[in-house]
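Input sequence (455 aa), recorded before submission:
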Amino acid sequence: MIIRQFFIPGIAHSSYLIGGIGSCLIIDPSRDIGQYLTAAKEEGMQIVGILETHLHADFVSGHCDLADVTGAPIYMPESAGCLFPHIPVRNKSLITVEDLKIEVRETPGHTPEHISYVLFHLSRGDKPVAVFCGDTLFVGDVGRPDLFPGKAQELGAALYSSLHNQLLTLPDYCEVYPAHGAGSLCGRLISAKRSSTIGYEREFNQALAFSSQDEFIRHLTTDMPPAPDHFSRCSEINRAGPALMKNFPPPAPLNPKKVSEILSKGFNDVIDIRRYDAFGGMHIPGSINVDAEVNFSTFAGWVINSEKSHVLVTHNRDQADNIAIMLRRVGIDTISGFLAGGLQAWALTGFGTDHCKICSPSDVEKRRVNHPDMVILDVRTRSEYEGYHIQGSINIHWPDLRTRYTELDRSCPTAIICGTGVRAGIAGSILKREGFEDICIIAGGYSGWIATGLK
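Predicted structure, token format:
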């Protein structure tokens, strides 16, 4: 028996290959399926089944793509009501491949239809050796039950039961393989450790230490991090069956004139993936800035309009191809192409540009003396803000600026700050689209502010 884990940074997604001698199963695959095909070939195995623990909210799954290429059946929770060909499974359903047996356990709570797969290695014995628990149990945390409006209490109770009556009945040595690691918004305190055991979690997972169901639910429904927009979108895409990746051509190179013509029709947005400082120096008017180097898929899925087409501003062709994959992971499939030659080509053609000032912390502090009406806009989460913030600053979480920009006065100079500058860059691009002119991004964010000695 072999277990191989695949991990995607940013969305912090883990998927798995479980192999016997000549056959293997893939659990919770991502949409870029080449890694599974390569791994199966390396192991000399044929993919004979694709198993999903639930309708993933934070990414579009690769189950349909993998089934299309391999012909392997897709196993889905019966209660998910999926609209594509699949084998529905429920509590106590069995899947057998060579000397491997998988028993399905229904573990609702993170989502209503959630299941876990308990693995038995029959040639070694009849005891469970591993559980693939999706987003029910993480290393150091459990799945959040608050993603469905009005159902948090109900799902919290279901999650408590799933953990204590299903997963924690497994032996302590049973290995735990979750669908996410640190950085995922499907939990709150997920460890950077990517696998565990039932015994380790029983001993050290704080979410399992609550003495009552009521305390557990209260913990998981209080001060949870905000959920990105694409969470609801991805669940439904996964239920219906995602469009196949093979039907999407690579992003086409578009010269500046073509990009200008496309944008003039109003059906496209520009996604500029450069660092906030480069974006601030020069960008196409109306662009959204999402730094490709930091949590790109999650941040883009949160604020990019999936109903529009998109032109990418990247450094080169290879980066455009990679960005397209990262966008499609969160259900943004409408990509018109990328600006050939980048912003330099755009500028050389003479088309209009915009900019956003980048100010050092000391510059901002000096300007506040001369402009007492200056607004310091802190775009971090509420919990970050409550931990430490500049006295007199205003806290609006950066995605919320899409609607809450109306709470700000366009006539007042505004300095935007986050942890390092990345989220402030997104916020600045949102405000620029809404007609704010006198804004600046505080370089280095709070890291730079504190290093300067300011309070």
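Checked by second reader. The chain has three domains: 2-234, 251-348, 357-452.
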